[in-house]
Amino acid sequence: MTKGMMKRRTLLRLAASGGMATALYPFGSVRVLGQDAPFSDYRCLVNLFLFGGNDSFNLVIPRSEAEYNVYAQSRQNLALAREDLLPIFPSTTDGMEYGVHPSAGGLQTLFNSGQACIIANVGPLIAPVTKDDFLNGSSSIPPRLFSHNDQQDQWQTLKGRDNLVSGWAGRIADVISAATDQQTLPLNVSTAGTNLFQSGQDTVPYTISEEGADAYGALEDSVTLGTERRQAFQDYLAGGFPSVHARALAEVHQRSLDRADRVNEALALVPDLDTPFPASSLGAQLKIIARMIAVKDEFRMSRQIFFAAAGGFDTHDDQNALQPGLIANVTDSLAAFQTAMVEIGMADQVVTFTQSDFGRTLTSNGDGTDHGWGGHQLVTGNPVAGGEIYGRMPVLEIGGEDDATGGRIIPSLSADQYAATLARWFGVEESDIRLIAPNLENFAVQDLGFLG
Amino acid sequence: MRHVISVLLVTLLVSSCGGGGGGSTVPPSPGGTAPPPDPNPFSISDAEAVRFLRQATFGPTADSITRLKQTGYEGWIDEQILLPPSLELPYMDSQPEPEEFFELHTTRMDAWFQHAVTGSDQLRQRMAFALSEIMVISQLSVLARTPRGLADYYDVLIRHAFGNYRELMEKVTLHPAMGVYLSMLGNEKPDPERNIRPDENYARELMQLFTIGLVELNPDGSPRLDAGGNEIPTYDQGIIEGFAHVYTGWTFGGSSSFHSPSFLFTIPMQSFPEFHDTGEKRLLNGVVLPTGQSPEKDLADALDNIFFHDNVPPFVSLRLIQRLVTANPSPDYIERVAGVFRDDGTGQRGNLGAVVKAILLDDEARQPASDDTAGKLVEPIIRLTGLWRAFDAKARNGRFLFAAPEFFFSQAPLRAPSVFNFFTPFYSPPGELRSLGLVSPEMQITNETSTANVNNYLAVSTFLRNSSSPDLEDSEVFIDIESELELAADPGALVDRVADRLLAGRISSALHDEAAGMVGLIPEDEPAFRVAEAIHAIVTSPEYAYLR
Asked: Which of A384, B184, B412, B485 has the maximal Cβ count within 10 Å?
């Protein structure tokens, strides 16, 4: 069960103050201290969450002979052939050569043209963890490693060992709510249903479908008595209910009714894009997000965060057969989205990034992989200092220095560092960054540098 | 698809509301057969009966209310437990072969709705549905190729709905659909040469999601804390690996060899000992399985090891209570039910029939709700079955060919997005519920999109598919509004009648006014439109969507 409001606020406050010489302050006043002048520009983040745990050690692969051989020895029948890898050319070299999965042509193009970067071996961490720390059961290890929902929660909330029930995009919306109060839609919009990532303390995200806002057919003006029916329903909803559950549902109805027509009327201004998208749910999600960005001025949006998602990455079985389609869907969708941003003239203001439950084991279970920890993530868009691999590529050796045990790689960068870098670019003030990324203070590097 | 429905509503409602010929109908026979001497020996009010039947069935009907009053709560449960199970696979096999293979999935939906809407073994079907949201497999996976396998798995849940949880664990573990879904099927002993070790998927999820969860629990379901106030993990990676080694050496039953699978999805998996790991295996509570055991012996020992873990009673009890009665049961309620799970009074552990009886007869389920945090949102698809049961819905061809309920209701049997089900037991939406520290699992599939979709389907099901609707296709499920038509001239009486059927008359004055006001806007010569309007107002209301 979750804790009450006061408890959570206390936790957030404690997380914010940490070991620093900062006075404890109530959450409410943080917003007064934070950004509250309106933003003069537009910026947008798109989180592409890969549910199930993407096997990113088969997405970015060493091509240098020695490192490739280590990879191939570890991965055995799951290893990709060296000659099939699509070469990428990082501007800054660590002395090794790299390639991406043969189905990741979209990524290869974006990377080599400087519009994508790779964040190497990132994952949930409370503080840096060495192999010895892991074997000795360090308190810096996030709880419930290797569990899908718990590690999804870690990525989305950055809660570490705390009981935070808000997501870091939700907290961003909270801390810049004064600066964005001209916006007539919530800062957070999901095309993939309810999620913790966008759930704030004070702010609630808005969900749309792959086609836009879903309207209530019987309440449309064009339907017999639709206008009257809608008014009667809204009057009834406003009257209150003797159940906390009914009230929760009624609020969703009210928000839905309040927004659907506005959103669909705005989207009708850009009925289609020239850019083709993959014929997948993810392609459709990124397309509606592109159209929403195209009509942002209809809602006076200056800051937006979208949540899109793809599933099916839990490749315990049949990985060699499944992975090409999974990776092609993601990288082709990212490439299409970038093209669409150029088409609508927003390429300089939008950053897309991936998250996933965890990386997967280097070892095989016969025809698939199991739950790991660290993994690589992708960031795309013109603002990205692209064509680079940020962080250190891990040693892909079973029992090697980066292997916790059984081919589960210990992350060398934290999800907090990743989020803080994105949040800073988005416009969160330095004094509020620790509210967004509570564990950041435990790391020497405060910004991963991939956004300049 | 969803937009198609929306457009359908717009186009049809504009032109054809109310339909033809609804005005003169045969008056309903009042009362039917003579009542027994005392129709209500247990003094169960209509409101009490409806509350119970919304917890224990897919929706109250006039007949079920009558029967419940005759038998009392306990007698009704006993009677239900003895009814023969309505099974999906035999139903599917009795239906004509569809033209396309994938349409068999629609036949499976048909089977589910047949039993949910018209089956007499309602409590068993509700339990099976609840169990299908705990021991999850999903068509949205490689199982998309085996509708009959999915149905056979669901039949396991139906058959064992009142059986023993340990036996159910074994049937589920050895069902090939589960074997494929969580990749125990085909899992082999380690091959260090090739860096291959056993698959950990089933080892992890059987414990995390089906039986004990991640942290030690007290008998009341609260986390047990160590001296430092920290939660205590139930297992570590080494134990996962121990169980992963247990679950090696199994493939489809009837296979000629481990690597020549039969692909038979309706008989239990079989073992091939040469592919089973025979080493020691570290399990829960310090238990270590010795070397050299057979696949069957290892499996039986491992399932016992889990089944007798102290977490299982509160873990399973909480989840079943949440599916049937309330999202936030008190710790005492959980502990009372968990106590029955531990021992049904005859020394049996895991007797699900006794557990469901304890859940439904508990004071917290039967006494008036203490405050406005009690109860739960009714699962979206059960709002639809409730409407269909209350108004005796059917299609002329006798089928319920609803291909994709999940597009409208964000859920359908065995179609969860992952093994984590449609929602978690601990989902707490931002706002009042979260600030009160309360959960509402169903709110995880409630958002601005889903609310519109649910109401759109309910609008179609009332306005466009009722017994007065013109041009109904043979496959369209329609509600029977004949006995409401005679009240159509009197908006207040009509709304009262509909509220009786859906809410046992417990309608707020606000909803009554909304519904009656809308009815009054419709000309008297369109009685079916009036009836549909009244039903629509109630069935799409938050009042109908929660259960207290």
From this structure: B184
What is d(CA A25, CA A47) in angstroms, rounded to the nearest whole number?
A: 30
Longest dimension (CA), chain B: 82
Contact A84, A390 (CB under 8 A): no
Amino acid at the residue B414? L
Residues facing residue A308 across a β-bridge: A48
CA distance B371 to A399: 57
Give the distance from residue B186's alpha carbon to the nearest chain A alpha carbon, in angstroms. 9
Query: Chain A within 8 Å of B143 (Cβ-Cβ)?
Result: no
- Residue contacts between A and B (CB atoms, under 8 Å): 260
List the one residue out of B191, B190, B292, B285 whose CA is nearest residue B241.
B190
**What whole-number distance in Å separates Cα of residue B84 and Cα of residue A38?**
67
Q: Do B196 and A73 touch (CB under 8 A)?
A: no
Q: If you count them, how many residues does chain B have?
A: 548
Biggest CA–CA distance in chain A, Å, is 73
Q: Residue A20 CB: number of other CB atoms within 10 A?
A: 9
Nearest to B540 by CA among B447, B455, B450, B445: B455
Task: Report how far residue A177's alpha carbon sits from residue A264's, in angstroms, rounded to the nearest whole number.
Answer: 24
> How far apart, in Å, are the Cα atoms of B128 and each of A275, B45, B112, B319, B430?
47, 28, 10, 13, 31
Q: Is the pTM of this model over 0.80?
A: yes
Taking the CA atoms of A174, A178, A181 and A182 in sequence, report the sign of the dihedral they define: negative
Q: Give A442-445's long-range contacts (Cβ < 8 A, gap of 24+).
A: A442/A126, A442/A127, A442/A128, A442/A140, A443/A125, A443/A127, A443/A128, A443/A414, A443/A416, A443/A417, A445/A417
**Cβ proximity of A353 and A421 under 8 Å:** no
The Cα–Cα gap between B247 and B299 comes to 7
For residue A49 the two structure tokens come to 């969450």
Measure the CA–CA gap between B431 and B429, rounded to whole angstroms.
Answer: 6
Q: What is the mean pLDDT of chain A?
A: 92
End-to-end Cα separation, chain A, in angstroms: 41
B48: its two tokens? 């009490």
Task: Report the residue of B139, B438, B448, B450 to disrupt the A interface, i.e. the one with the largest count of A CBs within 10 Å.
Answer: B448
Query: What is the three-state SS of B123-185?
Result: HHHHHHHHHHCCCCCCCCCHHHHCHHHHHHHHHHHHHCCCCEHHHHHHHHHCCHHHHHHCCCC
pLDDT of residue B460: 97
E strand or H helix at A191: none
List, in sequence order, the alpha helices (H) in A215-280: 226-238, 244-267
Q: Tell me, what's the pLDDT at B122?
A: 98
**CA quadruple B265, B267, B269, B271: dihedral, nearest 10:** -140
- CA B272, CA B280: separation in Å to the nearest integer? 18
Chain B stretch 474-513, residues whose beta carbon is closer than 8 A to a beta carbon of chain A: 508, 510-511
Mean pLDDT in residue range A60-84: 97
The CA-atom distances, in angstroms, between B256 and each of A114, B148, B156, B264, B270 are 55, 22, 25, 12, 10
Give residue B4's pLDDT band: very low, low, confident or very high (50, 70, 90). very low
- Residues of chain B with C-beta less than 8 angstroms from the C-beta of A406: 197, 237, 241
- If you write DSSP's letter for every residue of A144-177 in order, what string do you get? TTT-HHHHHHHHHH--TTS---S-HHHHHHHHTT
Q: Residue B357: pLDDT above 90?
A: yes
Per-residue pLDDT tens digits for A116-169: 999 999 999 999 999 999 999 888 899 999 999 999 999 999 999 888 889 999
pLDDT at A320 over 50: yes
What 3-state DSSP class applies to B456? helix
- The full DSSP string for B222-256 is SBPB-TTS-B-BS--HHHHHHHHHHT-SEE-TT-S
Mean pLDDT of B291-307: 98
